[in-house]
Amino acid sequence: MVTNAASKNSYEKYHLSIMMWSIPTGIVIVFVYLIYTVTMFFYEKNSPSYLSLAVFLSITIVFMIVSVVYVARVRDQFKPIPNHLRQSVIKILLK
Fold it and tell me: TM spans, by residue (predicted)?
């Protein structure tokens, strides 16, 4: 079968699939904790430790979203090439 990826094994496909579920789950957990931290920041009369933790969690969420985008792009390399493009791909790869 011709795919967009060159010599990838099934472990990598499985790993990327797991990453596609675990990273968004982590984002949700960190986001809920961020809401709690911001709430405590206002409740505890603007404690600087809660503010610094909220900033750190916000930066963490941004990096987690970027990693989801990266994993999704890599995962898309494993999608099979449609039959009507198969001959064109083989011709390009053999050049």
Answer: 21-43, 49-72
Instruction: Let me know the angle formed at the C-alpha of 93 by 90 and 95, rounded to the nearest 5 degrees.
Output: 110
What's the domain range around 56? 10-94
- List the alpha helices (DSSP H) in 1-95: 10-43, 48-75, 83-94
Mean pLDDT of 5-30: 71
Tokens of 60: 């963490």
Q: What is the DSSP letter of 44?
A: T
pLDDT tens digits for 62-76?
888 888 888 777 766
Count of alpha carbons within 13 angstroms of residue 61, beta-carbon side: 15
Number of domains the chain is built from: 1
| Cα separation, 38 vs 30, whole angstroms | 12
Q: Are 76 and 1 in contact (CB under 8 A)?
A: no
State how far the Cα of 21 lies from the Cα of 48, in Å rounded to an integer.
33
